[in-house]
Amino acid sequence: MTEHYSFTTLVHYILAQKGALWRISFYSVLATLLFLPIPILIPMLIDEIVLNHPGKIIENTDLLFGPTEAWFYVAVTLVSVLFLRLCVYALTNAKTKLAAMLTEKINYRLRQSILHHLRHVAISEYETVKPGGIASKTIQDVEAVSTFVNMMVTTLVTATLTIIGVAAIMVWMNWVLALLVFVVNPFFLAFSRIIGKKTAELYRRQSEAYELYNEAVNEVLELFIQVRASNQERSVFSFLNAKTKAVETTSADYRYKASVSHASSTLLTTTVVDIFRALGIVAVVYSDLTIGMMLAFLFYLSTLVAPIQQLMGLVISYQSSKPALLRINTLLSLKQEPRYPHTSDPFQDAKNSSIELKNVSFFYQEGHNVLNGVSICAEAGQKIAIIGPSGSGKTTIAQLLVGFYQPQQGDIRYGGHSYKEIGLPVIRENVALMLQDALFFNDTIRMNLTLSSDKSDEAIHHALQAAQLDRFVTQLENGLETRIGKNGIRLSGGQRQRLAIARMILSDPKVVIFDESTSALDSQTEYDLYATLSGFLKDKTVVIIAHRTTTIKQADHIYLIEEGKVKDEGSYAALNAKGLIKEDFDVA
Predict the structure, then answer these.
(1) Helix pair angle (38-45, 291-332), 10° resolution
(2) Which has more confidence, 229 or 397?
């Protein structure tokens, strides 16, 4: 069962990267320790050199180099500051690189989990979602979550340590001013929480608009030929423009409000700094705080702003990633197809297998049965045909046979074994379903034949030859490497069906189901193709769903389906004698 994601899950993923996490933490601590002295070093020179109050810098420099001129003290201090900044820079870069690698690993795991879940999702569930929405969730929402993870890994330790270190130094310098700073800080975090909640809602609206836009664009691109053939480009693209406008509106609103939130945070921060500058002058006049220490205190106060803003940004990112996680979890909530134990394999070491639908009933929507108590049998190596009017349930039978759906009643058996004992992956490995509308990738002929599996050129050309497509492919300039366009648009209908048949031959199934898979061919070409395939199909169990008599005649046994039931069965001659078969069969 695929887990749903929460922030606790993300924390577990981060903690699982122990090596990288420890190194990130080490670099963060070391960078913070090296950074903390930087703001105080140069201001100390004001007291020690300008105001002539020798202190630690002069004492330590004299100890190493002996008494010297003022410019030398400044030079030594400046070199020390620059060296510390360079070390902090190197450590920060190393930390950032490790954090990026850690974040991308979590990104990969999130996307892998989504894809793994989709791999096993039930067809009935998949039919309810749109590819654009899936793409939006696997790209945009995962990025939103990874942004939060990256910020948490890179800023949480550093920002927290910096705040603690700077706070300790500020207390040492002037505890009264430091106390005032600490009183103000909680208001920063409260303000960021309010901002975060508002921006999270705006981000959710923006994500929904992007998803609807992606879905609409994908559908239009899928059906572009139909849109152009119908001369409906204006209306369809006007519809897309409306979706684009929604994206513009929600995105502009989100970006503006997020920008205002950031500007408000900056305004609050700079206002507080200005107030403390004034208070610092008062402290110099009425306490023992020196001018150099006052400047150092203000430098530390300015330094404190960055980690506080980073924590505020982390809170805002946390709020924004909440809706992203919820949207990811909607994908992970899609019901998966059942996974039956593989306890028997009737296909192993066999050339074919018998098929039996035993009292099968099925519905897509409860109360509207598509099949009612259907019983069909094909002996091993036998060819059967299923005929009947459109909507009678023929294609549903084909989809049940390969496990796209499972019957609500009855059983489906291969070689006498229930599909629940065999397992759906084993069935699909040995049972090929040839659809009327074959689907193809926008890729090469080779890829569409092999689906990225390892097949030799000899086997590929043998399959093409059996499907009567080898001559066409060899005449192409790029042969098997020819790209066929989106869903095979560069091929004719007959060529697409032949390519699908060649793909089936290459998979070498034990059972073959033809679901109107030669309907795009004329009768003579279809007859010739089946004649060519006769050698390949000789030892196979074959189920033919067709209307044409030229196709039906090849079957050893025929089942007539009407209104989801077996109305009659028998040989072609027997059914024809009863007047149940017509030329180019299509029962009205």
Answers:
(1) 160
(2) 397
